[in-house]
Amino acid sequence: MSVFVVRTVAALRAAVAGWKREGLRVAVVPTMGALHEGHLSLVRIALERADRVVVTLFVNPTQFNNTDDLAAYPRTEPEDLAKLQPTGAHLLYAPDVAEMYPAGFSTKVSVGTVSEGLCGVFRPGHFDGVATVVVKLFLQVGADIACFGEKDFQQLNVVRRLASDFDVPVEIVGCPTVREPDGLALSSRNVRLTQEGRRIAPALAKVLFETAKRLASGAPVAQSLDEARAAVVAAGYSSVEYLELRGDDALEPLAGLEKPARLLAAAWLDGIRLIDNVRVQDPELTL
Ligand SMILES: Nc1ncnc2c1ncn2[C@@H]1O[C@H](COP(=O)(O)OP(=O)(O)OP(=O)(O)O)[C@@H](O)[C@H]1O
Ligand SMILES: CC(C)(CO)[C@@H](O)C(=O)[O-]
Ligand code: BAL
């Protein structure tokens, strides 16, 4: 069966209503396109947990705090559709900007606390844009479950918070980060790296995993984080926006390993902002 493409809320709702009448369980996988194996892994997890899978493709302008980043964001719908065909996904919902934000649109959803700090500091307004579009997608699709990647760990936490706060009847499923063999987390922005940048890029994951192991074996936190930031720059990144230790549940700042923790970082390479994170107590990767 081929993936059916819809571009309007009305067509989307008609398709989902038909499935619901048959008692089928529906999953949604929100994306901004330029699909890679990370996205496809979310689709596979969705297919394991639901009877019908809707993939959404919308490059959401309201979450880009940087107009150059929005302009440079890859748009590859025909290739995305070709990649989705063999997965068994059922529907691609690809609205245009006017369908999502018609004239007069003026509501904004803002999730407190968990949106603050980390990416929230460096991408002002970003999580308001994400929360607003994700609420819209939840209400438009009406899915039973929604899959989000741990690669965007703060976003996953923002989405969990808003689904809970707004009593959205959707189960949020966090899915593991898919990596290149050298450890680099797959990201749509990786295609913009130069050859030299691509060689340097895995250093971020490598430093995070090494630091996680050192912390887990008792190394001092503040010093280890300072050394980690320096190591990312020494590897060739132009700067580190943040590299922090946070609680694994609520992303609260942690001074030590008194509870499950996560290391999260954002750093710049080739004018591209890359993010990554690892669990501290049981980092799953050996590089
Ligand atoms: N490497 C990955 N492993 C698992 N999930 C991922 C990965 N990369 C992205 N995702 C998830 O796919 C969904 C859509 O993300 P998005 O379309 O922004 O892709 P992206 O690769 O994160 O792009 P970018 O980071 O350049 O914005 C999000 O839930 C995101 O967490
Ligand atoms: C969740 C999302 C699709 C909202 O635009 C986006 O932030 C993304 O691709 O991670
Ligand atoms: N991957 C999260 C979407 C963004 O970077 O804007």
TrEMBL record:
Binding site for (R)-pantoate: Q63, Q155
Pathway: Cofactor biosynthesis; (R)-pantothenate biosynthesis; (R)-pantothenate from (R)-pantoate and beta-alanine: step 1/1
Keywords from the named record: ATP-binding, Cytoplasm, Ligase, Nucleotide-binding, Pantothenate biosynthesis
Domain of life: Bacteria
An example Gene Ontology molecular-function term: ligase activity
EC number, as in UniProt: 6.3.2.1
Binding site for ATP: 32-39, 149-152, 178, 186-189
Main location class: cytoplasm
Active site: H39 (proton donor)
Cross-referenced Gene3D superfamilies: HUPs, Pantoate-beta-alanine ligase, C-terminal domain
Xref: InterPro entries: Cyt_trans-like, Pantoate_ligase, Pantoate_ligase_C, Rossmann-like_a/b/a_fold
Binding site for beta-alanine: Q63
Entries under CDD domains matching the protein: PanC
Subcellular location(s) of the protein: Cytoplasm
Substrates-to-products reaction catalysed: (R)-pantoate + beta-alanine + ATP = (R)-pantothenate + AMP + diphosphate + H(+)
Its job: Catalyzes the condensation of pantoate with beta-alanine in an ATP-dependent reaction via a pantoyl-adenylate intermediate.
General remark: The reaction proceeds by a bi uni uni bi ping pong mechanism.
Quaternary structure, from the entry: Homodimer.
Family recorded in the similarity comment: Belongs to the pantothenate synthetase family.
Listed name of the protein: Pantothenate synthetase
Organism: Mesorhizobium australafricanum
Phylogenetic lineage: Bacteria, Pseudomonadati, Pseudomonadota, Alphaproteobacteria, Hyphomicrobiales
Record gene name: panC
